[in-house]
Amino acid sequence: MQFAKRLQPLQSNVFADMDRAKAVALAAGRQVIDLSLGSSDLPAEAHVIEAIAQSLGDRSTHGYLLFNGTLGFRQAAANWYEQKFGIKVDPETEILPLIGSQEGTAHLPLAILNPGDFALLLDPGYPSHAGGVYLASGQIYSMPLRAENGFLPVFADIPAPVLAQSRMMVLSYPHNPTAAIAPLSFFQEAVAFCQEHNLALVHDFPYVDLVFGESGEWTDSSPNPKSKIQNPKSLVPSILQADPEKSVSIEFFTLSKSYNMGGFRIGYAIGNAQLINALRQVKAAVDFNQYRGILNGAIAALTGPQSGVKSAVATFQGRRDAFINALHRIGWNVPTPQATMYIWAKLPSPWSQNSIDFCTQLVKQTGVAASPGAGFGKSGEGYVRFALVHEPLLLETAVERMAQFLD
Predict the structure, then answer these.
(1) Is 226's pLDDT higher than 90?
(2) Which of 208, 205, 207, 231 is nearest to 218 (CA)?
(3) Is the peptide bond before 350 cis (omega within 30 degrees of 0)?
(4) Checking CA distances to 225, which of 99, 125, 146, 190 falls within 20 to 30 Å?
């Protein structure tokens, strides 16, 4: 049997590879502390679960859900977004419900790229961004992210021949895996660049709320700070704050991180009406929508008390501090991230250029599972990503095991 060539780049996946390594460790009797996958261990809020539970007995929710039936969710998302960022959104033409934001980022290239067209992607970056381009038979130009640049790409380094064939750029800040954040000035530069070169600007935004700070003011901490953002609702900017006319930009949000609803698979796309409509056409060929009860739970999350979001942020900040302090105690000096649920750690010698071997041997010998930086792209080599998805005591135990492994 023959298969499409587009499947060849999809044969290796960082999460699938580590899943096999964890299975081997479990089979050998290891107690695995899994820090490889960014799946929150925190529960969804009670009022969200109640909204879903009440829907189950309603027979009208049991059938297919078409676009018009999602209006209540789209209105809730538009209101949430306007309150958070001060950007008005048309729920009819500028919002599309998704089965998690990954559905959107993976399917959008099908609506934008012709075979051979380039997509400009972050390196390292989230694997599904590349997967969607491969499925669309596009080419990838990787924009390297380096610590000396605050893990921000340098647009001037993109070759002119690549730009001539490029149709889209994908950004994602706060960033997975590096945990970097981007200032509004960077987004303004990105919008101007994409306008000049006729590129669709795609921003994957799952960690909008997982930002650690004491007030509603976030100060640009990039190497060359140019701006300061004052917003009582968000500590990081949306791409649409740099493109309020939505001229070239589309943003993806998921309830997986802010509201601990990863298993419910609910998110949305927001932004340029033409991009939204194009993605809607692709989606219509693939699926309808989620069960209406899940959308009712999402509406409850977006419109109800936000104390659970604040509590989750405080929890991950406490875990971050415990893990970083433990790493420092064993002599592994890792910078303290300002956002996300991840620690992006530069590997010590002799593992500094072999992150896959490091993670494979680490889980085999200690049961601690992490994600190799190379799994997120060539520029991720030399790093490892830890997900803060356990209580502080277990995170400290993981560091103790790593100390023995490193010794």
Answers:
(1) no
(2) 231
(3) yes
(4) 125
Q: Tens of pLDDT along 111-140?
A: 999 999 999 999 999 988 999 999 999 999
Residue 20 CB coordination number (10 Å): 9
The set of residues, in sequence order, having a beta carbon less than 8 Å from that of 132 and lying 6+ positions away, is 105, 106, 107, 108, 109, 110
**18 lies in the same domain as 66:** no
Does residue 250 register a pLDDT over 70?
Answer: yes
pLDDT of 222 strictly over 50: no
Looking at residue 253, its amino acid is F
Identity of the amino acid at 246: K
Comparing 29 with 280, the larger pLDDT belongs to: 280
Calpha distance 242→14 (Å, rounded):
33
| Same domain (yes/no): 71, 32 | no
Q: Are strands 249-254 and 267-271 parallel, antiparallel or unpaired?
A: antiparallel
CATH number (domain holding residue 267): 3.40.640.10
Report which secondary-structure segment, H or E, holds 364. Answer: helix 355-366
Q: With 80 as the cut, is the pLDDT of residue 338 above it?
A: yes
Tokens of 4: 């499409």
Residue 368 tokens, joined: 């601690």
Last residue of a domain, one of 280, 303, 326: 303
Distance CA 169, CA 201 (A): 5
Give the chain's domain count: 2
Residues 320 and 253 reside in one and the same domain = no
Q: Report in angstroms the alpha-carbon separations of 377 from 14, 144, 355.
A: 10, 9, 11
* pLDDT confidence of residue 278: 98
- The residue segments making up the domain with residue 402 are 5-43+308-406
Burial (0-12, 13-18, 19+ Cβ within 10 Å), 139 = middle
